[in-house]
Amino acid sequence: MAIRVLVVDDQQLIRAGFAAILDAREDITVIGEAANGLEAIDLARRHSPDVVLMDLRMPEMDGISATREIVRLETAPRVLVLTTYDSDDDVYAALRAGAVGYLLKDVDRQTLLDAVRATARGDHPLATSVARRLIEHVLARPAPGPLRTLAALSPRETEILRLIAAGLTNAEIAQRLVVSETTVKSHVGSIFTKLDLRNRVQAVVLAYETGLVQPGGAQVQPE
């Protein structure tokens, strides 16, 4: 089944160009185009895409506000940000809003296609040199210390959150802690529920934001 993609960008030529690149592939279908966040929410609600390719700076409603609403839909798609802007504030806000990936518009065609496919299968396309630089800039901010939200975690859950932030997959965490992968998945689900997280990207950001781990070693891995 083809990956259903909604392309969101306020510049018609850029939007059409990305749509043409994606729609030319047999495994990807562009189900709609939106020129702003309000249109994106409406089309996402009506057509249930698998992936939303989201710009950030748009009139009427920006991409961050739209992302925040789209990921709350009953059949929520996964949002991949594709933007010209690479400031720390933009990256941080997009990830906190629920985006699972963040790329710049100067990516080559194949990188874009691979990122859309990775997003659709549940991965987080951040493991490029540009994305690693951006996430490190976001996470390197001084943190005031652990927030109260982490107090809800058990000691084992706190340990697993630290390992997630270190870039370990569920299988690697299970091997490190000498437990089953099913047990790890159960703990990860509990962590996400207690901290109101949607994905591993948000877990990594929170781990750094609260001071649970220090910048320098995190590499976001696929789930």
What's the topology here?
Layout: E1 3-8, H1 12-23, E2 28-34, H2 37-47, E3 51-54, H3 63-70, E4 78-83, H4 88-97, E5 101-104, H5 109-120, H6 129-139, H7 155-165, H8 170-177, H9 181-195, H10 200-209
Parallel strand pairs: 1-2, 1-3, 3-4, 4-5
Helix pairs in contact: 2-3, 3-4, 4-6, 7-9, 7-10, 8-9
Walk me through this protein's architecture.
By secondary structure, this protein is an alpha/beta fold. The protein has 2 domains: 3-139, Rossmann fold (3-Layer(aba) Sandwich); 148-209, Arc Repressor Mutant, subunit A (Orthogonal Bundle), CATH 1.10.10.10. It is 48% helix and 12% strand. The chain is built from 10 helices and 5 strands, in the order βαβαβαβαβαααααα. The chain has a 5-stranded parallel beta sheet, sandwiched between helices. Strand 3 (51-54), helix 3 and strand 4 form a beta-alpha-beta unit. Helix 4 crosses helix 6 (129-139) and helix 7 (155-165) crosses helix 9. The chain is elongated, with a radius of gyration of 17 Å. 37% of the residues are buried.
Tally of strands: 5
CATH class of the largest domain: Alpha Beta
Series of H and E elements: EHEHEHEHEHHHHHH
Rg, Cα atoms, Å: 17 Å
Number of domains: 2
CATH superfamily of the largest domain: Response regulator
The helix-and-strand class reads alpha/beta
Tell me the helix content: 40-55%
CATH architecture of the largest domain: 3-Layer(aba) Sandwich
> Biggest sheet, in brief?
5 strands, parallel
> Which strands sit side by side, in order, in the main sheet?
2-1-3-4-5
Shape: elongated
Termini separation: 21 Å
Mean pLDDT: 84
Residue ranges: pLDDT <50 for 5 or more in a row?
216-223
Strand content range: 5-15%
Number of helices: 10
Q: CATH topology of the largest domain, which one? A: Rossmann fold
